[in-house]
Write a structure and sequence with these properties.
Elements: E1 2-5, E2 10-16, E3 23-25, E4 27-30, E5 34-40, E6 44-53, E7 59-70, H1 74-83, H2 103-122, H3 127-132, H4 134-149, E8 154-161, E9 165-166, H5 172-287, H6 289-418, H7 422-432, H8 435-447, H9 470-490, H10 496-499, H11 512-527
Antiparallel strand pairs: 1-4, 2-3, 2-5, 6-7, 7-8, 7-9
Helix pairs in contact: 2-4, 5-6, 6-7
Length: 528
Amino acid sequence: MWYHVSEPNAYLAVTGIGIDKVKIVKKCFVMPFQKVRKVSIAPFDFSMALQAMTSEKLQFSLPAVFTIGPHDDEASLMKYAVLLTGDSDGQAPAQKHAITPGRNHVQEIVKGIIEGETRSIVSNMTMEELFNNRRLFKAQVIECVQKELDQFGMHVYNANVKELQDMGDSKYFESLARKAHEGAQSQAQVDVANARMLGRVGEAEKEGETKQKIAKINAHTAVLETERKVEKANADQKLRTREIEIARELQLAQIAANRSAEQKDAELQKHVEEKRAEMELERLRATTVTQAKIARESAQEKADADQYTQQKKSDAQAYNQQKEAEAIAYRSAKDADASMYQRTKQADADLMSKEKEGQALYILAEKEAQANFIQKQRDAEANFIAKEREAEANFIARKKEADGLKEMASAYGEMSKVLGGPQGLLQYLMLQNGTFTELSHANATAINGLQPKISVWNTGSQDGAADSMAPIRNLLQTLPPMLSTIQDQTGMTAPAWLMGQPHAGQNGDMSAEEKVAATQKALLNGHK
């Protein structure tokens, strides 16, 4: 009896006596007549390059990497242990008490399943669908492969489909990549143009918003200034009204004080007159009672009459002064009310005028900003359309020019074959364009007006006798006429030592002295 424990990434598959099929556990006692094998559930990766053909009969290579392993549940592990553990021939490895799944034949089984399902899916898809719906294709492959692997108790943990590749002479994916690159470049140019247009439009919008905000601020400032002026006018009006009220109260107090003083004076005067009358009455009483009574009654009546007259006069003056004060107060109040009303109306009119003026300036600025925005937008659109049309025209012109050059090159190639090669084509083009005529004309123009002097010298022996010094003599004899011809045609003179010639005798020979002198002279001239 043995006690077995598996690793964290493995299970124990126990078979034998007391077990109907396979028992999957992490640890157990192994009884006699029982066998135990360790089954690893660690996933494994394998790469493959699948060759498939689409519904359009286009072949391509599909590199992919799959991560596959046994599923971690009892039913799947039992299937995996029964079907895939051991070698491909069903024999268990020779090592005692441990087995590992035969990775080679498992990968072959999985590869066969993947290739079959992938080819089945690809055969119903076009190349464009496969290229554009790669994620859907990957999901379909995983789903179909997983259905087939479920019967073996295995699970697809991950599938990574790499870039699709061309096979043989096919250039499909290369052409698509080039097309995408050109499209991206064209879209980038369009995006740059759109960004510039948006920048200009945004700048115009910000300028318009700035002008609108400035107009609003100016209008609000004018309104606030008008309100402050109205508040100041109201305060000034209240101040003047209070000053008028205080002045009126002072005048009334002054009048009341005057009336009180006059009344007190009248009372004192009356008291004095009464005392005077009593004294006079006592004096007269002493003399004549009758006269005294008569005088007293007369004086009393007279005093009463004077008092009444004085009182009425004082009342009339007080009433007149009171009415005059009331009239002054009424006129002042009315004047103040009229002034306040006039100033209120003037302030309201100024406020309404400022408000209307502010609204007019705001509307004018808003309309002007809208007009500038629309004008700049139209200018941007017109410039964009003009640039686009110009670019299209340049592209078409360059394309037509390239097509013309291509056709002309093809025609020249055919003509070269007919004329016997490039040399024949060159001569034909020179004849057709008049190149030979122009060259002849240029050569004639170059030598036109020249007056060459042609001298013929014969230095050879006429008798045909052999002479070993003939070449040297002939060379020396050609120097004088050659130098003379150069001098006549170009104006260039040979050095004096070269042109110096000895005097010849009658027979053309020099004496010995002349030869020695000529040799010394030549040597001296050569050393100078």
